[in-house]
From TrEMBL:
Pathway: Amino-acid biosynthesis; L-methionine biosynthesis via salvage pathway; L-methionine from S-methyl-5-thio-alpha-D-ribose 1-phosphate: step 1/6. Keywords: Amino-acid biosynthesis, Isomerase, Methionine biosynthesis. The keyword Ribonucleoprotein does not apply. Catalyzes the interconversion of methylthioribose-1-phosphate (MTR-1-P) into methylthioribulose-1-phosphate (MTRu-1-P). Also catalyzes the interconversion of 5-deoxyribose 1-phosphate and 5-deoxyribulose 1-phosphate. Part of a bifunctional DHAP-shunt salvage pathway for SAM by-products. The gene is mtnA. This is Methylthioribose-1-phosphate isomerase.
Length: 335
């Protein structure tokens, strides 16, 4: 396989390597991943995370195993096991389906490697095009609010919603970003803040619950968020807390944009209620762990509700930004 290099994933020197996103921003640790169990664990623990990235990381691992001479049945098992790691982001399923097709060919190892290279390069190009379309929605001086992390760390390219912000900041003066910290795993406070600082884009971090008063004070011009799965009717799943923002945006009359590559669109899913929402461990809510320390504040055995994502209805979306363009209702159905 050729060399493939992204911000948090690379294939280099014959090895699949991932940047540990659970340890960021205080520790930059790269892991080499050589087997399915390790990749499953990296994805389950959110060391590898973000809808496009989990699909691509799983893909590179399967391509690596194919290059190492794994048999067809082993590759088939690997694809199934990796697809089962996280249920909500459709990008992972999309990648695994592409590999299943490649596996049908006589020269399946070569076909898998080719698919992996194509999926990786395609994601870079999709992010680029998303940025070019999304920038049309941004004006100089905008204060943009975003949630979770949708940047280069979460994709092979410049990112999706954060990619739009990155593109805008290159072309327009005085772009400022309000960054939701994104409880419980703090992808905003840890990862989006880290990326914006590296890109030298001015930002301000806030607790998720502060967004309402910020909007009421007229300090948010636009909201850009990513997606893990967009249903055929435009409903979409994204990091828990996104739905709150959409409701608040409607109330305060603030444009609310969803940004994603075509690989996040699921034509087989009619509406948001059909999207499976991943439920995660109680310990993520009862305390914290990671490079920011280890601590439990809730009482032992506290009862916890911890869905990783929520579903925002299409009726709350101002427009969907895809690699193919910006779609307002009712044109959305044309995708
Ligand atoms: O649980 P995570 O950190 O993988 O959730 C990520 C998100 O919800 C992102 O907004 C989404 O995957 C889009 S990333 C370009």
């Amino acid at each position: 396989m050729k060399e493939l290099i992204a911000a948090s994933l690379k294939y280099q020197g014959g090895k699949v390597q991932v940047l540990d996103q659970y340890l960021l921003p205080h520790q930059e640790v790269w892991h080499t991943c050589q087997d399915v169990a390790s990749m499953q664990s990296l994805i389950n623990n959110l060391q590898v995370r973000g809808a496009p990235l989990i699909g691509l990381a799983a893909t590179l691992l399967v391509a690596y195993l194919a290059e190492q001479g794994a048999e067809k049945s082993q590759l088939c098992e690997a694809i199934d096991a990796l697809e089962a790691t996280r249920p909500t982001a459709v990008n992972l399923k999309h990648c695994m389906d592409c590999l299943r097709q490649a596996l049908q060919q006589n020269q399946y190892a070569g076909a898998i490697v080719q698919s992996a290279e194509r999926l990786f390069d395609e994601d870079v190009a999709l992010c680029q095009r998303i940025g070019e379309h999304g920038v049309e929605l941004v004006e100089a001086g905008d204060n943009i609010l975003t949630h979770c992390n949708t940047g280069a760390l979460a994709t092979a390219g410049i990112g999706t919603a954060l990619g739009v912000i990155y593109t805008a900041s290159k072309q327009l003066a005085n772009i400022h970003v309000w960054v939701d910290e994104t409880r419980p795993l703090l992808q905003g406070g840890r990862l989006t803040a880290y990326e914006l600082a590296r890109w030298q884009i001015p930002y301000t971090l806030l607790c998720d619950s502060m967004a309402a008063s910020l909007m009421a004070a007229g300090k948010v011009d636009k909201i850009f968020v990513g997606a893990d799965r967009i249903a055929a009717n435009g409903d979409f799943a994204n990091k828990v807390g996104t739905y709150n923002l959409a409701v608040l945006a409607k109330f305060h009359n603030i444009p609310f944009y969803v940004v994603a590559p075509k690989t996040t669109f699921d034509a087989n899913c009619a509406q948001g209620s059909e999207i499976e929402i991943e439920q995660r461990s109680a310990t993520e809510v009862t305390g914290v762990s990671g490079s920011f320390g280890e601590c439990q504040w809730a009482p032992e055995n506290a009862s916890v509700f911890n869905p990783a994502f929520d579903v925002t209805p299409a009726s709350l979306v101002t427009a969907w930004v895809f690699d193919s363009g910006v779609y307002y209702r009712p044109e959305f159905r044309a995708i």
